[in-house]
Specification:
- It is globular, with a radius of gyration of 21 Å.
- By secondary structure, it is an alpha/beta fold.
- The protein is 42% helix and 20% strand.
- The strands form 4 sheets. An 8-stranded parallel beta sheet has the order 4-14-13-12-11-10-6-5.
- The chain binds 2,6-diamino-3H-quinazolin-4-one.
Length: 366
Amino acid sequence: MAENFSFKLTATDGRARRGLVSMPRGEIRTPAFMPVGTGGTVKAMYMDQVRGVGADIILGNTYHLMLRPGAERVARLGGLHDFARWPYPILTDSGGFQVMSLSKLRKLTEQGVTFRSHIDGAPYEMSPERSIEIQGLLDSDIQMQLDECTALPAKPNEIERAMELSLRWAERCKTAFGDQPGKAMFGIVQGGDSAALRVRSAQALKAMDLKGYAVGGLAVGEPQSVMLEMLDITCPELPADKPRYLMGVGTPDDILKSVARGIDMFDCVMPTRAGRHGLAYTRRGKVNLRNARHADDPRPLDEESDCPAARDYSRAYLHHLVRSQEGLGAMLLTWNNLSYYQKLMQDIRAAIEAQAFEARAAEITE
Ligand SMILES: Nc1ccc2nc(N)nc(O)c2c1
């Protein structure tokens, strides 16, 4: 494996990119989908199943892990990879977004955020420096800057204030992260639904010469058209030779349309959360296994899938498990859904390669 962090583009199709991130703990084929492992576990999955469906990297959350079991405890136990038995790359979110969406009594200043835990009300503070320190204690491979994500809709001056604060915090995170060759710290573009603010944020982060760039502040309730418009504005401002990560996205349709606009990495709770709520993603659309119409259906979700959860169990059985609130229901549907998402990414990667090959072949025959 690589000793350092590197990214190379291997094919393009218009603005869509096929690439490879190489890190000491492994390679990440892009476009990539990162299963969400918030508290150091991809809920209802064994880590070897997560690997088995084709995931190259998973996501963890600073906010959740600092509250429970505690970052220093995870460090004492050897870091998140040993703790959770996932030896491959892990990307950790920085905590700001989760503080604002989960914690209580939070107060945000230039210094950072102070808040009370949503678990036991204990007081905490999170500065850019502390967030990077926690991600280091977790031994995270890709660490996100601390940022302030503005919920949309928001007033332009509010979006601007949060975007500018996030830029100052990006500088502080870059300083705190220092030079760790085998790891990366990504900046996060903010700017809400304002084209001008998105351009300013992206250009300022580009000038910081970071190893990767996330597009944040989206998938916060805005229409898909606004999200895609912001990608049309933001991606061209980001360096072509660095990975681009769209945070919190999304549905299969969101992912397809965002890859077409130049995004390389995704994370979303949808496939895992839907699995726990009885919802299955299939090539023919979503299937709600709670629905009584499945009670006598002997067919599997997808007889052509190579995932046992999709191929070896009848819809009738899955319906029974879901209705009975049996743990195996969440396990099988999560397995199916993550397999579906990874197959989607595999098909996207192949399509970009094929199209690039076609374009190259056309050049050669001309
Ligand atoms: N939609 C999202 C999801 C996660 C995020 N995490 C951070 N740090 N910042 C954002 O803007 C996010 C947006």
